[in-house]
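Local shape tokens

___
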Amino acid sequence: MQKSKPAHRFEEDRDKVRFFKQRAKRARYDLSRFEPAIREIMEKSIQGTLHRGLYPFVDEPSGRSAVEEPVRTKREPSVIGRSTEWTWDSALPEVVQKPQSSVSALDKSKKRLVVFVLGGILQSEMRCAYEVSKELNCEVFIGGTSILTPSQVLKQLKEQSSMN
């Protein structure tokens, strides 16, 4: 009787072999757990290996932070004549635009990925976003037009199958 080889041994593409090996490392007691396809998309996008032909509207990482945080500074109270009078101008601090000085260097170096799904997302996809952010040490923000429950998904599939 011949022993079977793992499926990735027949694969010649090194990226796919690496992907299969990473997936095998993640294998836990819950081998039958469903893995959403969006997980692979998130991983490849963060690693920079996402196919540009299939996903032409995904932007390249810019390497700079576009978010600037307003930093408040104190103003000197306004003095009129010999007495100091309180005015609204002196009560409101001046807002100065400054690069993010309060953000740590660790947060600046983290990659960020924003995923928005038209039609809604499932809880399993949110779980995958959390797992990918922990595994690849990055921030993954996921959202959609709605958060779907399994019963809502089945209802939508049933409605679509009745239309066809």
In short: The longest helix spans residues 150-163.
